[in-house]
Amino acid sequence: MRSSFAATAMAFALIIARPTHALTAQDFGSFAQGGPSERAVLLGQWAARGDTGLATFIASLENGEYRSTPEGKLVRTLDGETFTDAATDSVLGAPKPEWEDVVVSNVLRAGVEGAKAALQLSIPDEGERLQAAKDLLEAELDPAILPAIEKAAVKETSPAIKALLDGLVAKLALSADEPEKRIAAARALGESGDASNNLKLLDARINPGEDSSIAETDSVVRLEIAKIAAGLRTKVWFYEMTGHLFTGISLGSILVLVALGLAITYGLLGVINMAHGELVMIGAYTTYLVQGVFRSHFAASESVYILAAIPAAFLVSGLVGVALERLILRHLYGRPLESLLATWGVSLFLIQTVRSLFGPQNVEVASPAWLSGSLVLQSNLVLPWNRLAIIAFAGTVLVLTAIVLTKTRLGLFIRATTQNRAMSRCVGVKTSLVDMMAFGLGSGLAGLAGVALSQVGNVGPDLGQGYIVDSFLVVVVGGVGQLAGSLWAGLGIGMLTKFLEPTVGAVLAKIALLVLIILFIQKRPQGLFALKGRQAD
Amino acid sequence: MREGPLFKSLGRNGQIALALFSFLALVLVPLLRLLPESAALYPSDYTVTWLGKIMCYMILALALDLVWGLTGILSLGHGAFFALGGYMFGMYLMRSIGHDGVYKSDLPDFMVFLDWKEYPWFWNGTQHFLWALLLVILVPGLLAFVFGFFAFRSRIKGVYFSIITQALTYAAMLLFFRNETGFGGNNGFTDFKRILGFDITSGAMRTTLFMLSAGLLLGSLLGSLWLARSRFGRILTAIRDAESRLQFCGYDTLWYKLSIWTISAVLAGIAGALFVPQVGIINPSEMSAANSIEVAIWVAVGGRGTLIGPLLGAGVVNMGKSWLTANFPNLWLYALGGLFILVTIFLPNGIVGLASTLRKRLGNTGAHK
């Protein structure tokens, strides 16, 4: 900001070629005679009228080129020896001892900074104006700058910057002398801008705490501010809840992605695949490898690597899953507890393999540019694009899986085998082939979850471990082999977690969730969506 | 009981093995420990502690076999009970440090640097040895009872139950990792100095703990064998093999399952309490899901349902682990993963079953000829 100001000052200096005196002799006189706070006010006024000479004046001021004379004149020197009258440019010669340096004290500094920022508000470049407005919002400003900002707000064409400036004006006007102005300012704060910040500003007026200097004394204004603050509080609460809802859905959709494949394999084979998390991890590492291939061979289209990673991860994880089914699980059908232990062994194996291949540290997977950044609905409600994309992705995957399961021949076989293996075999379904395909499908879905996770979290050998307990809970709550169950359970667990976390903390939220799930199972032992029918073992 | 049918039922080999173990652990090792330290046969402090630690693992494996091998309930959360027992006794050990901690305070060191001003209510009375012992039994027992009651009542079984127990130990680990819960955070309890006023690092104390572990191992093994042969044990086996049929016969399986589940948890807790003074530390990583699953592989390697097998399994796997992690640390996870896969596929009855499987095979081929 400082350097950009210097650049601007240079630009001004070049255009104008030499110190202009749009500032009048009278201006210089009052500046020379005033104390620091009067000088600050003067700077604000000059900024407000958009004085062309102000930029150079401030630059010289900060350089320590000015001195004030007892006669009320401002004199300027470039080399410390030859002095000129600031107003007339007439040469005065050597300095006199009674002239005083114009020192930029703290009080004057606030005025200078405000005036500089206000000047920047008139730069043609929109980006720099926006930055200047943001800087002003952060800064501790002297109220003297208010007229300058009001002027800039009126002239401003960009709505985003105008909104910022209006907020700034309202913030400064809260300290105005006239009660009506203060009320108007409070109203403006209640209507626009960063709601939670504005709420803090207003709260400081009615409950000032330690800094009682800003407390509102007028009882009418006080009442009005309290009313507006109450309205804002509701607004902030609403934004917060919407935020939780969003993060809850976001976490839920990740859980749904992870649990989807798990639900299929568990429903079909009765096997809890403890290596499912590692299949997710393999999907994430596949994304990393695809990214590497794009970087080295197709650098021009690197930003679409993620689209290529989706089928690649599905295939790689799917193939690992098929191999797992063929080589190991095949021998353990009908022994679910042993299958669980064997797949745990596989997961250890996969973790250690990835560790030896890629090293124990996380690898870097960069979100493509079109997925970074956020959708800003409101300054308190920011939705990151990658999370939005994951929600959409999870929805798409869910719909596609549902289509595969309900509309294709493979899906028909999978559902038939899930419901009654023996009968399916009797009517000619090759159940062992179905098992393999279904396991491949479930594992491929895990790979897709890995692609999604690589965009929002760290990709390391332990990636799968973090989500596996939660996704098991999703399957337990959702019911066996039920897509709808996985969906509702995933979203429910995700949202419950995110709504509990801010109030009770992450750990207690997790424990509360576990207790809730155990209680829930008391009511619905088969999960949300149990298969109807008679079963006995 | 020794001369009763239980002892006879062990068979000749079993009797010899048991007698040999009793002689080695309760007579020979303590006698050898009386030798001067320079003697060739003197078992070092490290060896004795290491063996004691493995015997605690054996008791844990036995506890798991009671529920998994005997009753068919696979728990992936026994590490939680083990660690809880350890924590209860660990707190007693913490408090008997007295003022000899780093901060010379009334409170244990971890409480001082975590800014506790007094003991939270649940640690009241833990300075008394007997109350601590009671807690070692009560806390894991109560947790298991309440958890088991809700789980068994809603007929959660099979892999469902395993997953829920895994979540249980996971949640417990998270809880114990927190600093503000008063369980010592991620450092747990350590830096113990004495038990009942005796120096915890002295050779005599190590021998005593070793003998206690061996005694408890022997006692719990005999107790478990007796339990398995009793009417109660037969019903447990029936639950494992055909729970629905048993229910149709009029048995309320809930209370049988709940009893053995609670007994098993208590046994695991006691093993944990013996484990802590020997290794000198207890922290939440004992409760990680991976640790609990590892116990299952000890049982599977040895042969589940045999009660003796899990002891062998715990011994073999842990000795292998000590050796591998010291010599080839990268290979340990491969070995463990491979063990899980190979044992479940090729050795469904474990080491103990291997002998009888081989004998049967040989016998069969002989008959065919």
Describe the model.
The complex is a heterodimer of chains A (537) and B (369). Chain A has 537 residues and is mostly helical. Chain A has 21 helices and seven strands. In chain A, a hairpin with a 5-residue loop joins strand 3 and strand 4 (91-93). In chain A, helix 11 (219-269) packs across helix 19, helix 12 packs antiparallel against helix 13 (305-327) and helix 16 (409-419) packs across helix 18 (431-456). Chain A is elongated. The model of chain A is unreliable at 9-21 (pLDDT under 50). By secondary structure, chain B is an all-alpha fold. Helices cover 71% and strands 2% of the residues of chain B. Chain B contains 14 helices and four strands. Chain B has helices at residues 5-9, 11-32, 45-70, 78-95, 109-113, 129-153, 158-177, 203-229, 231-248, 253-279, 289-302, 308-327, 331-346, 350-368, and strands at residues 189-190, 194-195, 198-199, 281-282. In chain B, 42% of the residues are buried. The model of chain B has no long low-confidence stretch (mean pLDDT 86). The A-B interface holds A 266, 270-272, 328, 331-332, 335-342, 344-349, 351-352, 355-356, 469, 472-473, 476, 507, 510-511, 514, 517-519, 521-522, 525, 536-537 and B 68, 74, 147, 150-151, 153-156, 158-160, 162-164, 166-168, 170-171, 174-175, 177-178, 242-244, 289, 293, 296-297, 300, 330, 333-334, 336-341, 344-345, 348.
As a percent range, the share of helical residues of chain A equals 55-70%
Q: Average pLDDT of chain A, to the nearest integer? A: 80
Oligomer: heterodimer
Q: Count the DSSP helices of chain B.
A: 14
What kind of sheet is the major sheet of chain A? Answer: 5 strands, antiparallel
H/E series of chain B: HHHHHHHEEEHHHEHHHH
Q: What class would the helix/strand composition of chain B place it in?
A: mainly alpha
Task: Give the low-pLDDT segments of chain B.
Answer: none
Note the gap between the termini of chain A. 74 Å
Number of strands of chain B: 4
Largest interface: A-B, 41 and 44 residues
Helix tally of chain A? 21
Provide the spatial order of strands within the biggest beta sheet of chain A. Answer: 4-3-2-1-5
Overall shape of chain A:
elongated
What structural class do helix, strand and pairing data of chain A support? mainly alpha
Order of secondary-structure elements of chain A: HHHHEEEEEHHHHHHHHHHEEHHHHHHH
User: Largest sheet of chain B, if any?
Assistant: 2 strands, antiparallel
Share of residues in strands of chain B? under 5%
Mean residue pLDDT of chain B: 86
Report strand % of chain A: under 5%
